[in-house]
Amino acid sequence: MRRTSKLTRVAVGVASIALAATACGGTSSDSGSDGGGETKGLAIAYDIGGKGDQSFNDAAYAGLQKAQKEFKYKTADIEPTEGETNADKEQRLASLAKQGYNPVIGVGFAYGPAMEAVAKKYPDTTFGIVDSVVEGDNVASLVFAEEQASYLAGVAAAKATKSNTVGFIGGVDIPLIHKFEAGYKQGVQDASGGKVKVLSQYLTQTAEEGGFSSPDKGKAAAEGQIEKNADVLYQAAGLSGQGVIEAAAKAKVWAIGVDSDQYEQAALSAYKGYILTSALKDVGGAVYALAKSVEDGKPLTGTQTFDLKVNGVGLSESNPEFAKIPGLTDAVAKAKEGIIDGSIKVKTE
């Protein structure tokens, strides 16, 4: 029988730490000293876009940094390669487990098939996967209520728009990103009484086509929506989202970030004045929580759900302009309360 649980607040708040120090890079790296026989702890294998995306992968890296600092052990983080296969992912995860890292986490749903295969071969290693559910006695599936954070983003967009047209740009046309779109659309409609139009676009049909890793594609899509009068653009597109934010800033309209608080990202500082808010997803908290459970000798397994109730998702308020828009703060607070008490049921598709 699989266990499904909602994690406690031990996991919360990691995504905001240390992201400014994250550097772009295409090679694997180890954190910690290289003493012989040193205990090896958490290892993560990045999703498409890799470290430096200022979003999803960087949030996972923040969790790794927190674990390394607290537990004083050796960690590893490894980049993906362009055009890689499931066999490549299997080899990467197996190599980390064979070296003695524990836990080993695949950042992103694309690691699903590889995780299922490798976890069986290394039963004494705890594995984790972000954004997917994989069956296995030694696997923790770290999933999020993205639709809830997106609903709040939709409420914010409805309150901020002046043109009554807002946009959604998804990286890849897959069920995971549909959750972002569904929640956002519902939030916009509920907050505006159906008066605000939502333009939706997906950059690619598959991840291999670059939907999560092509800022130029994000920029072009954003420019197209801006031409159609959209003045608030929400992107769930990984590295491609940087292009959306750039286009929004150039046109002096609002962008809404995703996963991490993108207003606070150093690499996006030139555009921060136009990042209204971000739909937060505490990937770093999930990564840290799994590492801590292993360190405590009580490894988490089964499906671990991060939602508004445990602050696993949320909406940032870092931009001072957020509080200046009439009715926005109160509307978001009311929506959050409704989602948590169950009076608002957020759609996932």
UniProtKB/TrEMBL annotation:
It is a lipid-anchor. It comes from Streptomyces sp. R11. Keywords: Cell membrane, Lipoprotein, Membrane, Signal. This is BMP family protein. Its main location: membrane. Belongs to the BMP lipoprotein family. The keyword Membrane applies. Residues 1-20 form the signal peptide. One of its GO terms (cellular component) is plasma membrane. Residues 49-320 form the ABC transporter substrate-binding protein PnrA-like domain.
